Amino acid sequence: MADKSRDISIVVVGGSYAGAAAAKKLADLSKKGYTGLKVTLVDEKSHYFHAIGFPKALVDAKYAAKAFLPFSAFFENGTQHQFINSRLKSITDAHHLELENGQQVYYDYLVLATGGKAPGPINVSATSKDEGLAEIEQLRVGLQDANSVLVIGGGAVGVEVAGFVAATFPQKKVTLVHSGKRLMPTNFRDGVSNGAVAKLGQIGVDVVLNERVELPSDFGHSAHVGHKVLRGISGTEYPSDVQILAVGFKVNSAFLEPLESKTGSLLHIEDGPGFIRVRPTLQLDSDSFPNIFVPGDANDLPMTAKYGFKAEMQGGTAAANIKKLIDAGFDQSFSESEDSAIANAPALGKWSDMVDAIMVPIGPDLGVVQMLKVALGGSGIANFLVRQIKSKDFMLWMRKGYFPNKQQTSGQ
Ligand SMILES: Cc1cc2nc3c(=O)[nH]c(=O)nc-3n(C[C@H](O)[C@H](O)[C@H](O)COP(=O)(O)OP(=O)(O)OC[C@H]3O[C@@H](n4cnc5c(N)ncnc54)[C@H](O)[C@@H]3O)c2cc1C
Questions:
Q1: What's the rounded Cα separation, in Å, for the pair 410 and 171?
Q2: Same domain, 335 and 278
Q3: Does residue 26 sit in the same domain as residue 112?
Q4: What's the 50 CA to ligand 1 centre distance in angstroms?
Q5: Please, are residues 31 and 59 in contact by the beta-carbon 8 Å criterion?
Q6: Distance in angstroms (rounded) separating the CA atoms of residues 271 and 14
Q7: In 184-331, beta strands by DSSP E
Q8: Final residue of a domain: which of 297, 322, 343?
Q9: Percent of the residues in the chain that have a pLDDT greater than 70, as a whole number
Q10: How far is the CA of 305 from the centre of ligand 1 (A)?
Q11: Less Cβ around it within 10 Å: N or C end of the chain?
């Protein structure tokens, strides 16, 4: 085995579900004899935002304030690891990248966990906590003043948002319009979808299926406050005072451009959301960059893998594979001779999407669940499970464990 205590620089870009899991596992290695290993976490945001809790943050200002955790508290005090608050501009070559603040950063291994953006404010786009809170607050005030709310998109996010809005503001008319013939992702059972329709109905949400709302070209990627009449392709008009888009998703891969020019091949898919191509080991799909891993929403694994908990699992797989390469001395030989390093690289673990599970709160009291092949849609057991496990704080408590530097977490 190669010398564990040698200097190794690992850069993780993006500190959300995938990146945080990878960075934490890799930083922990420095307590296990890998004394020269340094993890640098880079994020354009100063704070991690718990996107999973957005439906609750939208209607509960106190919770929203708690859902932002400062990256300055991510690494324990007194370690060699560091957080840089900047945006990745470009990956220059297999060992260097450039940040928007002008810094050039060297890496032996790179984890690209830059995810994707759903239309903001659903996926808070602000880069500071104050601006992020203001973004959510503006929508919350709009909801308070509205008589009617239109939610577009009946995946899990649209169902949760419509449910929390309707349960919090029972006097308002809430309509959920979905282009599919059933709610929720298609890999889940009919029982989950039917249960969601029934439970949304219980709290007064009108669910419209098989309908595509035509969005004006200037609609942008955002929720809108202000009266609008949108039309469905069926010809039906949907007047509302607030419109929330829970559809659309875009991946940024512009920073790969120098690598794409060098290799003369596209490392991302041009169509659709623009996913970054990966191998089952989560390495970038190129023989030239075996030291770059892309876990989480940014990669081109199937849409059924686009969940926070799966992003987190992929972050773990990427970290475990990097450890295997470190143990085999891959970074040393890769710097000397790329071809022979690749020829002698150890076999790496492959990520496989084995868990099909979903837990969707519909307001604080109701919800639907599927675990493996068992769908608990319309049942009271589903309500009980969702209340016990998710609706109270959307599992924010689990995320707090990632931010051990308590002194800095409190009050920020
Ligand atoms: C409202 C909502 C509710 C959801 N509910 C659930 C749920 O209940 N359960 C579930 O499992 N999943 C849920 N999801 C999906 C889940 O949030 C995503 O699958 C998850 O966020 C993906 O994690 P990620 O780490 O891959 O990327 P992201 O969460 O997208 O994070 C990417 C990170 O990279 C940073 N970044 C991006 N580009 C750059 C750059 N160029 N330079 C520096 N930093 C950069 C961003 O600031 C961000 O911190 C929900 C999503 C939404 C929007």
A1: 36
A2: yes
A3: yes
A4: 8
A5: no
A6: 23
A7: 205-208, 213-214, 224-232, 237-245, 292-293
A8: 343
A9: 97
A10: 12
A11: N
